[in-house]
Design a protein that fits this description.
By secondary structure, the chain is mainly α. Helix content is 48%, strand content 10%.
Amino acid sequence: MALPHHLDTITNTQTGHQLEVLKGVMVGITGDVWTFNEDLTTIAWGAPRTVPDDKVGDIKSALQNDIPSVACCNDDPYFGGKQMAVLARLALIADEVGEGGLAQQARDRVKPFIEGWLGGTNANTLLYDQTWGGVVSSCGMYDQGCDFGNGMYNDHHFHYGYHIYTAAVLAKADPAWGAQWNDRVLHMISDVAEPSGSSPFYPFTRTKDWY
């Protein structure tokens, strides 16, 4: 039985059998395997449209103020991750408006913090949990309330999303840096979205409910 959001993209044959539920009208689908055709969104580094000329000066002024003064970075995967991602985003904005020096300043500020997480030199180090097969903070491993339940696998997709995003921005500007830390970043990605289904270390797409 398929829900309305399935019917938008499913290619299987639909039957005339229907059932009304809280989420809408379910429809019977034939086949042991469901196949969907999903149109993926376009992903780019920059904005989908150019910045108006009369706004560029204001943006540059804000970057000059924000990049050296924005807070960075707490030693927890959520708040610290958000603060790292702010600097990463500011770096991309600076590059987009032609402020390469400010972009590099933002990357230089955030680099030691993301390297601390990836290299295990920060205080709240990331650990591999052999019981459930995932990456957790050392605080979260021993205190289920710490880091918003990180050790209980709460919200890893956006906690680590900030880290992955930051690493991607640094790797864009410095591919050699990206190659150096590639394996560590892939562990974070696999924790939330392991795609293979055959990893001995991580479950298949932990945070995705395919139904």
